[in-house]
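Hi R.,

Here's the chain you asked about this morning:
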Amino acid sequence: MFKDRPAPPKGGRLTAVQQIYHDLRDKIVSLDLPPGTVLQTRQIAEQFGVSPTPVREAIILLEEESLVDVFPQSRTCVSFIDVQSAREAHFLRRSVEVEIARTLAVEISDNDVDALRAAIGRQRTALEAGNLSAFLPADNRFHEMMYEMAGVGGLWDIIHARRAHLDRLRRLHLPTEGKAAKIIRDHEAILDAIAARNPNEAEAAVRAHLKGTVSATEEMRAVFPEYFG
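And here is the predicted structure, written out as tokens:
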């Protein structure tokens, strides 16, 4: 289902479809384009200086991720958050990252431990600056580095393609008082267990870290009912 979706940009020149897809996806996931927002094909085409065709192709990719609802001959709207999709992505991510943490607790090098500590430092810098827009990418990068260090970097792209609704929940949850600071503490606990070469503690730390957002879903639904439909 997801085989034709452009991979997340990692350098190099993007096609018009890729550029539009990633721009719209990022804005939807960050909630800059909240659920219910109408996407105007011609307006987007003018913004990117292209014909409507690549915009329509990008919208098809977003529709495959259930990030937009297309009503033929009528309108295209940003979809509501799909809680079931978020839960499935959470299950997949937790299953993979538990094994990654256990693997790293056996195999990680001292240099990689230092690199992960530096990544946590970048998260702390973003938090101290009050920059949540920078905090989430730094958070994601910490996890992505773990995938790469475990030799399964390709799985990050697979999960990235499935977790958009989960990421919207994360973005809603992040401004909650103390949430960002807890993420940093959780990352430190994961890394401390890995650095101590303790697979069981590393697994427990990952499980504790990843349960937070999904367990708060109903709380977020009560505060932001307009995001859930």
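One quick note: The chain has a mean pLDDT of 93.

Cheers,
M.
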